[in-house]
């Protein structure tokens, strides 16, 4: 499945900051370190030189990726028309059949973070939630089988 190009404003800003940091801070430092290591002579056994070149390739790969990705990402901001329904950027409190409640946020695939309970818009749970309202129930196929979830609460963070 193709990944969506949606992202929250804060997610876009985080990627943009990472790109600027890599390009303006990290890359010049590593380039200087490689240059200094190369000046020491034999490069074949020079760990600083070898590591530095590898790190430069990693930085360049990430910079290329971020540059291309930021061009195609579409920032989705909160809109009052979203109130009461689940859309991109929503926080949702879901309750399972055992009565256990958990909160999730629907974000872009570039910013999902299981540790924060941020789920990708491309995930089966998020897809099932889109357009639903409080007190709706959804059935979702998960790796552990079909799950029935109830929507207890929906809210949005408004950009300030």
From TrEMBL:
Query: What's the source species' lineage?
Result: Bacteria, Pseudomonadati, Pseudomonadota, Gammaproteobacteria, Pasteurellales
According to its UniProt entry, what is the function of this protein? Necessary for efficient RNA polymerase transcription elongation past template-encoded arresting sites. The arresting sites in DNA have the property of trapping a certain fraction of elongating RNA polymerases that pass through, resulting in locked ternary complexes. Cleavage of the nascent transcript by cleavage factors such as GreA or GreB allows the resumption of elongation from the new 3'terminus. GreA releases sequences of 2 to 3 nucleotides. Necessary for efficient RNA polymerase transcription elongation past template-encoded arresting sites. The arresting sites in DNA have the property of trapping a certain fraction of elongating RNA polymerases that pass through, resulting in locked ternary complexes. Cleavage of the nascent transcript by cleavage factors such as GreA or GreB allows the resumption of elongation from the new 3'terminus. GreB releases sequences of up to 9 nucleotides in length.
Q: Which InterPro entries match?
A: GreA/GreB_C_sf, TF_GreA/GreB_CS, Tscrpt_elong_fac_GreA/B, Tscrpt_elong_fac_GreA/B_C, Tscrpt_elong_fac_GreA/B_fam, Tscrpt_elong_fac_GreA/B_N, Tscrpt_elong_fac_GreA/B_N_sf, Tscrpt_elong_fac_GreB
Tell me which family the UniProt entry assigns to this protein. Belongs to the GreA/GreB family. GreB subfamily.
Q: GO MF terms on file?
A: DNA binding; RNA polymerase binding; translation elongation factor activity
Can you cite a GO biological process for this protein? regulation of DNA-templated transcription elongation
List the protein's name.
Transcription elongation factor GreB
The residue ranges of the Transcription elongation factor GreA/GreB C-terminal domain are: 82-156
Q: Does the keyword Signal apply?
A: no
Q: Which organism is it from?
A: Mannheimia varigena USDA-ARS-USMARC-1296
Q: Which residues form the Transcription elongation factor GreA/GreB N-terminal domain?
A: 5-75
| SUPFAM superfamilies in UniProt | FKBP-like, GreA transcript cleavage protein, N-terminal domain
UniProt KW keywords: DNA-binding, Elongation factor, Protein biosynthesis, Transcription, Transcription regulation
Q: Does the keyword Protein biosynthesis apply?
A: yes
């Amino acid at each position: 499945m193709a990944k969506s190009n949606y992202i929250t404003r804060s997610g876009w800003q985080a990627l943009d900051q990472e790109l600027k940091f890599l390009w303006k801070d990290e890359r010049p430092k590593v380039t200087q370190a490689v240059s200094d290591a190369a000046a020491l002579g034999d490069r074949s056994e020079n760990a600083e030189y070898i590591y530095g070149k590898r790190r430069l390739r990693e930085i360049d790969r990430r910079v290329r990726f971020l540059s291309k990705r930021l061009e195609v990402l579409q920032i989705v901001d909160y809109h009052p028309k979203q109130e009461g329904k689940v859309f991109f950027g929503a926080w949702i409190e879901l309750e399972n059949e055992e009565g256990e409640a958990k909160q999730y946020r629907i974000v872009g695939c570039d910013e999902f973070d299981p540790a924060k309970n941020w789920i990708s818009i491309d995930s089966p749970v998020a897809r099932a939630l889109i357009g639903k309202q409080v007190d709706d129930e959804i059935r979702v196929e998960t790796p552990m089988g079909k799950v029935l979830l109830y929507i207890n609460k929906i809210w949005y963070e408004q950009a300030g």
